[in-house]
């Protein structure tokens, strides 16, 4: 018998209990031992459940129980999750978590404690929910040098963009629908502003390149400024708009990393990732492009990944799995705005032709796009291989000579 404890009984926590109970027999076969939940930590009352007697409000009950060998943290946030997870590792208990904020901010420290105590700190569910990505990078693709990772890492933003693309729904209406359907929180700022995707790409970068990349070091843009006009220009260009988290290893040894909306070609494997689904592309030197696809969130998909980690911990309790990265190296992240990329620019002037002609004086070689329903005075164009820094210098100059800049969006090469 292997005893575990669960910290938190929210959406994911209750899903973990459901999966453990409904798949009890098959889980025991895969783990080579029966897994039994001994304690559930939550400050709320849950009467009437078949496991109501397992609840406790005292974390020390779990910490000081020598029978509990694995603790599942599904509380979310940093406080008190970090203190609890750290204490568990220091008291000889392996930890499984779905907490992306915890892993993104404290991963290096917690992995070091786990290593020191010959324990496991596993977090498959923290990035792709039910989409396996941590194991594939750390194990299946271990023979590769991972040059790049790019992905659609947030289901809420992908749902909103899908509605804007397919049904021409405004951002505000699509966000409201996402909230009504339970795909977004009442305050979904972490989703639509890109913070959620930023944490996930930082975890993947840390894992792939062996050094901790903190979210605060990463350029992050959300989708709140994306308009239906932008969507139409993307279609005219030959693609769709997706919120992309990306990281690339540079020849200098530094990494280029960021999260932003991008034009994605319809030929890309990421272009067809719609609704609440996630898609993660890993570019290995031996394998080429490998794409992982599935639901990135949700009660049971996330719980499935958590329970898989629990099984791994139980099977490898006396043998630590190699999952590790060092603390952050100084100046490891290349400034995002120095890397050149193709960019779409949306402008407005007295009339469309003159607006584009004026823009072309500052952006020689710009390629104009014509969208369906283009309004008089409006124009869109693509500039090849320009850095964010140079673009940031030229756009104010364009406004100074009478052309209003409505927005700009990077263009993906994935």
Give a quick set of tags describing it.
alpha/beta, 414 residues, ten-stranded mixed sheet, methionine biosynthesis, EC 1.1.1.3, single chain, NADP binding, elongated
Structure description:
With 414 residues, the chain is an alpha/beta fold. The chain has helices spanning 11-22, 24-31, 59-63, 81-90, 100-116, 125-128, 134-140, 155-167, 171-180, 189-192, 195-209, 228-237, 299-315, 352-362, 388-400, and strands at 2-7, 35-41, 55-56, 68-73, 94-97, 121-122, 146-152, 219-220, 239-249, 255-265, 277-284, 288-295, 340-348, 367-369, 378-387, 404-411. Strand 14 (367-369) and strand 15 form a beta hairpin. The mean pLDDT is 94. Pathway: Amino-acid biosynthesis; L-threonine biosynthesis; L-threonine from L-aspartate: step 3/5; Amino-acid biosynthesis; L-methionine biosynthesis via de novo pathway; L-homoserine from L-aspartate: step 3/3. InterPro entries: Asp/hSer_DH_NAD-bd, HDH, HDH_cat, HDH_CS, NAD(P)-bd_dom_sf.
In helices, the fraction of residues equals: 25-40%
| Average predicted confidence as pLDDT | 94
Sum up the overall morphology in one term: elongated
Work out the radius of gyration.
23 Å
Q: What is the total tally of β strands?
A: 16
Uncertain parts: none
What's the story with the biggest beta sheet?
Answer: 10 strands, mixed
Q: Report the β-strand fraction as a percent range.
A: 25-35%
Class from helix and strand fractions: alpha/beta
Cα distance, first to last residue? 47 Å
GO molecular function: homoserine dehydrogenase activity; NADP binding
Pfam families: Homoserine_dh, NAD_binding_3
Binding site for NADP(+): 7-14
Protein name: Homoserine dehydrogenase
């Amino acid at each position: 018998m292997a005893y575990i404890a669960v910290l938190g009984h929210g959406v994911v926590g209750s899903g973990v209990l459901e999966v453990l109970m409904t798949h009890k027999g098959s889980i025991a076969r895969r783990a080579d031992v029966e897994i039994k939940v001994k304690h559930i930590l939550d400050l709320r009352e849950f009467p009437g459940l078949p496991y109501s007697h397992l609840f406790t409000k005292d974390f020390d009950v779990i910490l000081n129980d020598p029978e509990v060998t694995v603790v599942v943290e599904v509380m979310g946030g940093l406080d008190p999750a970090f203190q609890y997870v750290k204490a568990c590792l220091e008291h000889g208990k392996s930890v499984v978590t779905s907490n992306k904020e915890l892993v993104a901010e404290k991963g290096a420290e917690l992995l070091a404690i786990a290593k020191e105590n010959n324990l496991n700190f596993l977090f498959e569910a923290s990035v792709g929910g039910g989409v396996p990505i941590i194991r594939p990078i750390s194990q299946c693709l271990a023979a590769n040098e991972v040059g790049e990772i790019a992905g659609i890492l947030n289901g809420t933003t992908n749902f909103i963009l899908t509605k804007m693309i397919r049904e021409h729904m405004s951002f505000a209406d699509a966000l409201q629908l996402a909230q009504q359907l339970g795909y977004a929180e009442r305050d979904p700022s972490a989703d639509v502003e890109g913070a959620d995707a930023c944490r996930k790409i930082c975890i993947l970068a840390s894992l792939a390149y062996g050094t901790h990349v903190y979210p605060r070091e990463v350029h992050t843009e959300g989708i709140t400024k994306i308009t239906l006009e932008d969507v139409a220009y993307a279609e005219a260009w030959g693609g769709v708009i997706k919120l992309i988290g990306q990281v690339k290893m540079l020849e200098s040894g530094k990494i280029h990393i960021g999260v932003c909306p991008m034009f994605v070609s319809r030929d890309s494997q990421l272009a067809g990732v719609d609704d609440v689904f996630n898609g993660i592309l890993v570019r290995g030197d031996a394998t080429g492009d490998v794409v992982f696809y599935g639901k990135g969130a949700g009660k049971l998909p996330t719980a499935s990944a958590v329970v898989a980690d629990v099984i791994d911990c139980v099977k490898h309790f006396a043998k630590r799995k190699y999952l590790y990265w060092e603390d952050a190296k100084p100046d490891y992240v290349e400034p995002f705005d120095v890397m050149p990329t193709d960019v779409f620019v949306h402008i407005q002037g007295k009339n469309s032709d003159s607006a584009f002609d004026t823009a072309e004086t500052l952006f020689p070689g710009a390629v104009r796009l014509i969208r369906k329903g283009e309004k008089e005075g409006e124009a869109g164009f693509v500039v090849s291989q320009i850095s964010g820094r140079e673009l940031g210098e030229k756009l104010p100059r364009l406004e100074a000579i009478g052309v209003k800049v409505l927005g700009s969006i990077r263009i993906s090469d994935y």
